[in-house]
Design a protein that fits this description.
By secondary structure, the protein is mainly α. It has helices at about 1-5, 10-20, 30-45, 55-65, 70-75, 80-100, 105-115, 120-135; strands at about 50, 105.
Length: about 140
């Protein structure tokens, strides 16, 4: 789903959401409407820069606050049980990063997580070295 949100055009993003159960068969949400709904999330993790409180609040409010007009998408969607915890963790991490005004190349970090790309930060490099040292150890 993350790959579809960050890497695919709207029609493929919607198809991915349907395939994991976010939308039932026969729903009326268009691909562009779904893309617009996801825009604040793409803005958070889709560009390098500093997380701000405003960005985090936008990612939470725009999709779910009635004044932004996405009730049709929210009513049509149903988060699969397997995704609820992940979604909550993502919003929590976003709030934490905004609170400390974290700055990084977020798309590069996501590529590390999603595709196994090499680390792009000092901390990522340290983690990679630690993981490699653990992999070389015998279990017994």
């Amino acid at each position: 789903m993350a790959d579809a949100v960050f890497e695919c055009p709207p029609l493929e993003s919607l198809a991915a959401a349907e395939s994991v159960g976010y939308f039932p068969s026969g729903h009326k949400v268009s691909a562009q409407r779904f893309a617009d709904f996801l825009e604040p999330v793409r803005d958070l993790f889709g560009t390098a820069g500093t997380f701000t409180t405003e960005m985090h609040e936008r990612s939470v409010r725009v999709p779910f606050d009635p004044k932004f007009g996405f009730q049709d998408v929210v009513r049509a969607a149903n988060a699969p049980a397997a995704t609820v915890l992940q979604d909550r963790v993502s919003y929590g991490i976003s709030a934490l990063l905004a609170g400390i005004r974290a700055t990084a190349d977020w798309p590069a970090i996501l590529r590390e997580y999603r595709f196994g790309n090499p680390p792009t930060t000092h901390l990522g490099q340290l983690e990679s070295e630690w993981m490699q040292s653990r992999a070389n150890r015998s279990v017994f």
